[in-house]
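Researcher: Quick test of sequence recovery. Tokens follow.
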């Protein structure tokens, strides 16, 4: 797909080669994506992830125990 330089200048108000601008935007997007991925990897690694996993497991186990008590209590009262 070709980009018409005259139409690009008319519609965007920018001068210069549109492929240069497109390349710069793609490079910036790739850099931002890489930065987000690095930040996400740091957030989900190490002690924080271990603590989050332990908390999730503890709340899941507590919820299961409460559910069993409720179901057995209802069955015992009937």
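Model:
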């Amino acid at each position: 797909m070709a980009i018409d330089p005259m139409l690009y200048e008319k519609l965007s108000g920018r001068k210069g080669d549109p492929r240069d601008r497109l390349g710069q935007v793609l490079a910036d997007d790739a850099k931002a994506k890489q930065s987000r991925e690095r930040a996400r990897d740091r957030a989900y690694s190490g002690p924080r992830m271990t603590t989050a996993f332990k908390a999730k497991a503890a709340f899941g186990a507590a919820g299961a125990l409460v559910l069993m008590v409720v179901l057995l209590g209802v069955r015992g009262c009937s």
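The CA atoms of residues 35 and 41 lie 10 Å apart.
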